[in-house]
Amino acid sequence: MNEIVEILGDVVKEAKKRLTISVYDGRGSYNSIEKPDLNYIFGNDMYIKEKLDEMSKSPTVPGKLPKFPLIALFTPVLEQRNSAGYRMKAKVNILIACSTRQEWSNEQRLASSFVHILRPVYNSLFEALKADSRVQVQYDGVIPHTYSENYGYGRYGAYTQSGEQLSEPIDAINVGNLEIVIKNIQCENRK
Predict the structure, then answer these.
(1) Burial label, 106 (beta-carbon count in 10 A; 0-12, 13-18, 19+)
(2) Average model confidence (pLDDT) for the chain?
(3) Beta strands 39-43 and 70-74: pairing type?
(4) Which distant-in-sequence residues (6+ apart) come within 8 Å of 91 by Cβ?
(5) Looking at the DSSP assignment, which residues form a beta bridge with residue 173?
(6) I need a surface site. Which of 115, 119, 138, 182 has the fewest CB within 10 A?
(7) pLDDT score of 61
């Protein structure tokens, strides 16, 4: 039976299939990319930083997963397994990030990062989450969470809880207290 970390990994793979982003070309235009690779990392903030730093140091190789766009699940995940109505329930925190330029204004970040990359990734992620048969969605189609667009990471840096800065600027959407409820899976023995 898969746990939250693996289920979200599956959801990220599905999100890619329904995703289209537009990447700024540096000359005033955007290039549309359908089904771009999404990097999925799970771990505490230091582990995620180390993985991104590691990817920055290694050369780009065809077929190798790019660093960005990134969906990072912060662990540990505290799972509640205390109800017959579901298999487990957890409130998780996710970071959706893309590379940015420190010199960009907030208006440039809004257009290049949030409108063309981060919001489409967010929307695709939630569509895939709602479509996953293992995930219980409330009757009104809502999955409770908080949402925050962070423009400061790109200009001033993103830091771990211990004060270490990421090696490059990012723009990001912070999804907090995302309440994921995993249904009970009933298996039938058919002979």
Answers:
(1) middle
(2) 91
(3) parallel
(4) 78, 177, 178, 179, 180
(5) 96, 149
(6) 138
(7) 58
Q: How many domains does the chain have?
A: 1
**Cis ω on the peptide bond leading into residue 76 (within 30° of 0)?**
yes
Q: Across-strand partners of 171?
A: 98
Distance, in Å, from the CA atom of 129 to the CA atom of 2, rounded to the nearest integer, reads 15
Q: Which tokens hold the place of 130?
A: 């709602």
Are 70 and 55 a contacting pair, CB within 8 Å?
A: no
Distance between CA atoms of residues 38 and 19, nearest Å: 10
- Strand 88-99, strand 146-150: pairing: unpaired
Residue 187 forms part of a structural domain: no
Average pLDDT over residues 110-120: 97
Measured CA to CA, the distance from residue 156 to residue 100 in angstroms comes to 12
Cα–Cα dist 71/98, whole Å: 9
pLDDT tens per residue, range 97-107: 999 999 999 99
Cα(52)–Cα(66) distance, rounded to whole angstroms? 10
CATH label of the domain that carries residue 173: 3.30.2000
Range of the domain at 18: 4-182
* Global model pTM greater than 0.90: yes
